[in-house]
Amino acid sequence: MTIATVSGTSTSTNNCGLPPALKTAQAAMQLPEVQHMLRRLSAFQLGIFMPHQHDETTGEFQPLSADVTQVESGLAVSFQRLDEIVNQTASFLPVGWFWRAGASTVAAACEMADTGWPDDEAKQSVKHKMIQDH
C-alpha cells in the first residue's frame, strides 16, 4: 500500500511549501519499511501521523516544537505547552506520541470531561470534553 492508495493523491504534488522535515515525513510514507511499520502498528489499533503545528499568522505547516503538544478540547484543536499538559493525567488522554531525545513524548492529547465521579469510577468512563452549551 502506498500513500497514494490511502489518500487518492500523490504526496509529491501535495507537499509543496512544506518545511524539509515535513517533506521527509510525507515521502517516508511511501517507503516499504514505513508501510511495514504501519501494518504492524495496525494490529494494536495504532497508526502513523505527522506531528506538526501551524504558523499563527500565515497558517503554514511547521514541525511540532519540542515544548508543544497538540490538544483537542471541545472539538477544537490548539497547541499548548507540553509541560502543562503531560502531568495532568486526569484531564488529558495522550493520543499521539513521537520519539524525541531518546524517549517517547506526547505529541497530541484530548481533554477529558470532568465527570465529577470518584477517580476509580471516572477511569472506567472516559469521555471527551465537548463544546459547552451556553
- Count the E strands: 6
Strand content: 25-35%
Helix content: 25-40%
Taking the alpha carbons of the first and last residues, their distance comes to 46 Å
How would the global form be characterised? Answer: globular
Mean pLDDT: 83
* Alpha plus pi helix count: 6
Radius of gyration: 17 Å
N-to-C order of helices and strands: HHHHEEEEHEEH
Strand order of the largest sheet: 4-3-6-5
- Structural class of the secondary elements? alpha+beta
Largest sheet report: 4 strands, mixed
Instruction: List unreliable stretches of 5+ residues.
Output: 1-13
Notes on the protein architecture:
The longest helix has 11 residues, at 32-42. By secondary structure, the chain is α+β, with helices and mostly antiparallel strands. Mean pLDDT is 83; it is low at 1-13. The strands form two sheets. A four-stranded mixed sheet has the order 4-3-6-5. Strands 1-2 form a two-stranded antiparallel sheet. The radius of gyration is 17 Å and the shape is globular. The protein is built from six helices and six strands.
What topology emerges from the helices and strands here?
Elements: H1 3-7, H2 11-14, H3 20-28, H4 32-42, E1 52-54, E2 61-63, E3 68-73, E4 76-81, H5 82-85, E5 92-100, E6 103-111, H6 119-122
Parallel strand pairs: 3-6
Antiparallel strand pairs: 1-2, 3-4, 5-6
